[in-house]
Amino acid sequence: MAFKHTTLKDMKPMPKIIADRRLWLSEDGVTVLEDGDPDARFLLCAAGTHIPDSDAERLGLSLTKAGKLKAVKKSEDKAARKGEDKGA
User: Fold this and answer.
1) Cα distance between residue 87 and residue 51, in whole Å
2) Which residue, of 64, 72, 76, 78, has the greatest Cβ tally within 10 A?
3) Which residues contact 5 (CB under 8 A, 6 or more apart)?
4) Greater model confidence, 6 or 24
């Protein structure tokens, strides 16, 4: 087994996502909500907080060209969709 020596110069810079506002998670822990949303249950991040790339990818967050977090849209109510007839 060979050891590969890697220096910081060899590593690619990771894009950092820094929150520009408070973001919350809904009760399902997957839906990202804006500050003040009545369905918000868990604080995801405060303004100035680094959001790990793995969390950003999992939650569908990304940066715009201006460096702001992309507008977060509230997903449809999953409970309401469960009752819909998919064959209709």
Assistant:
1) 40
2) 72
3) none
4) 24
